[in-house]
Structure to design on (474 residues):
């Protein structure tokens, strides 16, 4: 026996003996998962056109075990839903948790403060009923791990990590006085990559996926909230863009793009991109091609119809305001085209920072305000629940999807237990979600984060976030 074997043999024997003689082997009872029975509710399952009236929902652990009438389970904790409406948790598919203060925030806040802002922003989103978000530019990889592990409160996160874009593109947030190749603070903390040439694109994309990104975000053209790039910008090159798509596909995932124009969208379709944001300047032939290629559109209804059309954030420069006005002109036309062609779509607010966190809820409701586009309250709810749940299952494979074993965005047997209870029926009147008092109950992953249905004597569970089951200070 070698020295190392002599040293570790006693330890190994102890581990084996503990494994063999563990009580579970002898049939000791394993603690059953907690069961919560929600009674006396009308249930919208996320996909149907109507509610299931006077229905019960049984949650076991972190999944929905049963949906039906007259469910009775001994030992379950019972919550009387008082005739209110159950829906799936909301999903925002275009967040930027790390970018409080805008794309140049790194000039003012260091990474510690940016992280603190992001944590509070995540908590705020959860309090509004968002149980899942897609963070689509910014280094939220570590925050994702902490929240998904239950160490911090917030929605479950799918993150792209740092955005990918060329010098002078929408991911270039450096100073106008920066020398060629200079690295600014936002690049140092990996909120963004500024990269040129196929080799750099491959390396940056692989860095993201290596470190835990769930998908990739590509700046495929110019944007509004950035300094150097006109909206009509045609870089990155098709070869650069394709390099990132190849990396996403290597990991069984997908690439999402930012873009506004036909050029940006069509070169992205050529490269195999599956997820598209903005697009308010594209034309009907491009929309038709999107339908043929069965891709997804991420609708920023509030940003396109309200924010860019005269209600820009305070941190927008005059040049950004002008670009926003340019983009807003096509919002109504494109929103109608997407609906007419039956493009698969979900909503994403593209809102970030303390002045804008609350606008994530407004973005859920705004599709119904777009003139002549034809979106209903039912459409709006689907675009913030079951549609994004379907998209994530379609495009994020097991190697990158920590939640693929169950469905998101629906109330059905076997789905993740993300449940909201509203006073009123949001598939008939989506605007009622804007009134905080209408949201009576929030459950994410089987954990109750808000319960205004409980009697006042149970004040510790009536309202407030919990970490690992413990109430947290409000």
């Amino acid at each position: 026996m070698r020295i190392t074997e002599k040293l570790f043999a006693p330890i190994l024997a102890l581990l084996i003996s503990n494994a063999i003689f563990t009580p579970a082997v002898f049939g000791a009872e394993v603690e059953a998962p907690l069961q919560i029975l929600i009674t006396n509710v009308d249930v919208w399952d996320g996909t149907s056109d109507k509610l299931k009236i006077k229905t019960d929902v049984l949650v076991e652990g972190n999944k929905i075990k049963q949906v039906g009438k007259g469910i009775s389970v001994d030992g379950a904790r019972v919550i009387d839903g008082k005739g209110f409406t159950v829906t799936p948790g909301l999903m925002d598919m275009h967040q930027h948790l790390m970018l409080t203060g805008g794309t140049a925030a790194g000039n003012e806040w260091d990474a510690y403060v940016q992280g603190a802002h992001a944590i509070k922003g995540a908590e705020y989103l959860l309090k509004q009923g968002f149980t899942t978000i897609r963070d689509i530019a910014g280094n939220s990889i570590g925050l994702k791990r902490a929240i998904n592990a239950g160490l911090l409160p917030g929605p479950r996160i799918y993150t792209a990590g740092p955005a990918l874009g060329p010098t002078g593109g929408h991911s270039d947030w450096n100073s106008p006085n920066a020398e060629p190749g200079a690295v600014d603070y936002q690049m140092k903390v990996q909120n963004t990559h500024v990269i040129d040439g196929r080799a750099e694109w491959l390396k940056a994309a692989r860095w993201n996926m290596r470190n835990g990104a769930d998908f990739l975000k590509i700046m495929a053209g110019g944007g509004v909230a950035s300094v150097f790039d006109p909206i009509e910008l045609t870089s990155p090159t098709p070869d650069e863009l394709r390099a990132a798509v190849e990396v996403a596909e290597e990991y069984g995932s997908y690439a999402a793009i930012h873009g506004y124009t036909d050029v940006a969208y069509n070169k992205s379709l050529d490269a195999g991109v599956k997820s598209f944001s903005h697009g308010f300047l594209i034309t009907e032939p491009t929309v038709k091609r999107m339908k043929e290629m069965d891709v997804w559109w991420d609708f920023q209804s509030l940003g396109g119809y309200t924010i860019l059309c005269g209600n820009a954030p305070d941190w927008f420069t005059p040049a950004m305001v002008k670009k926003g006005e340019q983009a807003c002109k096509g919002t109504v036309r494109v929103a109608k085209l997407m609906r007419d062609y039956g493009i698969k779509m979900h909503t994403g607010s593209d809102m970030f920072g303390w002045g804008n966190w609350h606008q994530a809820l407004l973005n859920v409701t705004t599709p119904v305000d777009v003139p002549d586009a034809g979106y209903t309250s039912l459409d709006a709810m689907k675009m913030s629940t079951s549609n994004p749940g379907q998209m994530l299952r379609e495009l994020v494979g097991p190697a990158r999807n920590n939640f693929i074993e169950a469905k998101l965005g629906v109330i059905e047997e076997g789905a993740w237990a993300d449940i909201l209870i509203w006073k009123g029926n949001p598939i008939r009147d989506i605007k009622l979600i804007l009134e905080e008092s209408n949201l009576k109950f929030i459950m994410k992953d089987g954990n109750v984060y808000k319960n205004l249905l409980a009697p006042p004597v149970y004040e510790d569970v009536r309202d407030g976030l919990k970490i690992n089951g413990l109430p947290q200070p409000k």
